[in-house]
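User: Fold this; tokens only.

Assistant: Input:
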Amino acid sequence: MRIAILGVGILVVAVLVWLFVPFPVTPPRVDVAGDAERGAYVLRMGGCASCHTDAANQGAFLAGGRSLQTPFGTFYTSNLTPDPDTGIGGWSTGDFVQAMTKGVSPEGHDYYPAFPYTSYANMTLQDLADLKAYLDTVEPVANPVPPHDLVFPFSFRPLLKPWKAMFFRANGIEPDPGQSESWNRGAYLVQGPTHCGECHTPRNRLGARDESHHLAGNRDGPDGRSVPNITPHPDDGIGGWSATDLSYALETGILPDFDVLGGAMSEVVRDSTGHLSAEDRAAIAEYLLSLEPLPDAARPEQEGGGS
């Protein structure tokens, strides 16, 4: 009996240590050289400027502090400038890759998935190294960012460890040899740097994406606004669009019916997809139009158990 009690006690202590003690992780060794000029394009792919620049309050470029309203509370985006105290000025490329692909800070703290490392984990090492090289060229700005203001229990950061154990898989993306080079490029862009699923896929009550409704819409999108279905469903999604329609919308924000994209998507076009190459926009369109058509998950009656 004493041995059993001792074993339970050791297990409890081990769990508490795992939850509450940050364990600095040795960052990966990065042997590829980053290209800052190409990194500027990777920044556009990721749409980093939209979230990490508090434009509404005349914030400096990439200095963070923008508030993001979610059902879990308010998140404030981080400072990506190379300021040594409030930004990422002291980070190595390995530190940066670890944050982007593992969701862990150089000090060993877990990041909330409002920072979409769950998608960035699919990015190539070269793209990440190029992005870090570009960020190192940005003007450093001292801008302390407010702490997140989240509702309980999401405010209890140690719970991120079991959350990641349950929901986060950093497996990367393998090219599909049965598809075209353009399709594979689109799959990489959508599932990696452009992180479309982070907004267009509904989340369960614990904040994990419900992949059974992948890209089928989300009624709890950025700042509480509904995000549309971008699967090729003929009634609820983009099934009636051509690849040209979709590419043009990503470039200009103009829809096939001559309406315009609004809300957060207007920022995506302004800061991200509108700056991509025509080939990359066509690749995204090819990939999205090849997906399984799904009914709109943003409608309450189709919410289901996981959204």
